[in-house]
Design goal:
6 strands; alpha+beta; 167 residues; 19% strand
């Protein structure tokens, strides 16, 4: 099954289980990062397999160039893996049962324009026909939202956002 079909099935399962919006968003972020992790691990396995088959081929300049390219690809995939694991650790720091009046890591922030889940950069997520943007605390918009409470405003790129609700 492809990733899109998996995501649809995940959305169906989430709707059946009684969870808060924050829990649903957290689970979608977890699924997002787990899918990225599987993709990178699969890439690393393919590179390793290619390296092993390169070893069995004949020697020469072409062989050495191919092997060097594969080693560069393996290094790149290793860096991606390290970054994904770091993001997963940051996601694990979120306690979905914890609520705060101030926007912080793990907060769901509703504004008059868009809704945000301050967690990891996972793009647009849909929960019960509502749209949310999963954003990292390091993003410019998150930096503006962090520490803010209901009724405060932030300005981002010539637009004003009024905070309606923080959970």
């Amino acid at each position: 099954m492809d990733c899109k079909a998996d995501a649809i099935l995940w959305h169906i399962r989430i709707k059946r289980i009684k969870m808060t919006t924050k829990e649903k968003l957290y689970n979608l972020c977890l699924e997002f990062i787990d899918n990225r992790l599987l993709t990178v691990k699969s890439t690393m396995d393919e590179i390793q397999e290619s390296l092993l088959s390169e070893t069995k081929s004949s020697a020469g300049d072409k062989h050495e160039t191919g092997r060097a390219m594969l080693q560069l690809e393996r290094e790149k995939a290793g860096n991606q893996l390290a970054e994904i694991l770091k993001i997963k650790v940051n996601l694990a720091k979120i306690d979905v049962s914890n609520h705060s009046k101030k926007a912080r890591l793990g907060s769901v922030v509703y504004t008059n324009k868009l809704n945000y889940f301050i967690s990891i950069s996972a793009g647009e997520l849909t929960i019960d026909k509502d749209y949310f943007y999963a954003i990292s605390p390091e993003t410019p918009i998150a930096k503006l939202l962090l520490g803010k409470i209901v009724s405060e405003e932030v300005q981002f790129r010539d637009q004003y956002f009024k905070i309606i609700k923080v959970i």
